[in-house]
């Protein structure tokens, strides 16, 4: 806890120092009316302040990077992971109204090449199973499924789902073999914001900036630094919509339970050709009446 108090003080110092030069300018104007010697004092103060600010910001950035790397190393070391999640995906209408789509689901991951996910929302009820060779996507509402050969790892599956099938893995960024490298691509600014609490779990709260997005992550403190919440803000889209994923029921290793990645078609289900995946509407990431528009 002492470590986080120290981090919070560094962050607070950085904020104070952003305001500092403006205050010093006011002081300088008053002192110029007094003596020439006093005129020089604010300059020295500002220089000292600037140096302190740079040091505090560097320390905050280095600490945030170290915490993110520790989480990445911890995740990579876990052979089996299971979790439940709640997510909110924001969209913006043509008349600039921000709307939220809420989803819940589960993830069971066995590195390096097996994953079983579920996702349920008001417009979809999906199960996805990957056994290292075959990808199965089941639309429970239509009681229909598609299967496709997709040999490789979970990392390669993320790319295939996005590029070939136009689907996403829940929290894909957090499931990669090297989460640190995946998340830090194009990052230009890093901050450690101190402590936060998610679902009763005390976390380290980190904030990052990249060209097109800002993102934040809350990482559980202690021996198991797993991600508790992940937020992405799209800066290049009108109203800056966000994606938020909150993780609960985190388990790793032996506590994650038995992993089963076999697929048995439900009674009465229909197998569809993979080219007809778009007809399996309740596996879509967006409701049927939504469409993707242009960036602002």
From TrEMBL:
- Which keywords, in A-to-Z order, does the entry hold? Signal
Q: Provide the leader sequence positions.
A: 1-24
Return the Pfam families for the record. DUF2092
Q: Do you know which InterPro entries this protein is assigned to?
A: DUF2092, LolA/LolB/LppX
Where on the tree of life does the source sit, at the highest rank?
Bacteria
Start-end of Low complexity biased regions: 44-57
Query: Which residue windows does the record flag with biased composition (Polar residues)?
Result: 30-42
Q: Where is this region: Disordered?
A: 30-57
Q: What is this protein called?
A: DUF2092 domain-containing protein
Q: Which organism is it from?
A: Sphingomonas brevis
Q: What is the lineage of its organism?
A: Bacteria, Pseudomonadati, Pseudomonadota, Alphaproteobacteria, Sphingomonadales
């Amino acid at each position: 806890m002492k470590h986080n108090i120290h981090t919070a003080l560094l962050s607070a110092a950085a904020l104070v120092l952003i305001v500092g030069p403006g205050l010093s300018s006011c002081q300088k104007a008053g002192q110029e009316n007094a003596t020439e010697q006093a005129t020089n004092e604010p300059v020295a103060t500002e220089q000292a302040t600037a140096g302190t600010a740079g040091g505090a910001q560097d320390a905050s950035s280095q600490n945030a990077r170290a915490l993110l790397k520790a989480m990445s190393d911890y995740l990579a070391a876990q052979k089996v992971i299971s979790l439940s999640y709640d997510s909110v995906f924001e969209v913006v209408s043509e008349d600039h109204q921000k709307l939220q789509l809420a989803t819940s689901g589960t993830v069971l991951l066995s590195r390096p090449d097996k994953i079983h996910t579920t996702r349920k929302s008001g417009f979809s009820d999906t199960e996805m199973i990957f056994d290292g060779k075959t990808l199965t996507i089941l639309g429970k509402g239509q009681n229909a499924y598609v299967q496709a050969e997709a040999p490789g790892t979970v990392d390669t599956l993320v790319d295939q789902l996005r590029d070939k099938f136009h689907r996403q893995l829940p929290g894909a960024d957090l499931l990669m073999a090297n989460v640190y490298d995946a998340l830090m691509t194009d990052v230009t600014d890093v901050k450690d914001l101190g402590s936060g609490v998610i679902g009763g779990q005390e976390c380290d709260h980190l904030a990052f900036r990249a060209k097109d997005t800002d993102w934040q992550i809350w990482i559980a403190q202690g021996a198991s630094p797993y991600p508790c919440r992940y937020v992405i803000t799209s800066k290049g889209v009108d109203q800056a919509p966000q994606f938020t994923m909150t993780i609960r029921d985190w388990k790793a290793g032996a506590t994650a339970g038995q992993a089963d990645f076999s697929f048995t078609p439900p009674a009465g289900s229909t197998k569809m050709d993979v080219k007809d995946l778009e007809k399996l509407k309740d596996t879509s990431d967006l409701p049927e009446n939504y469409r993707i528009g242009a960036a602002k």
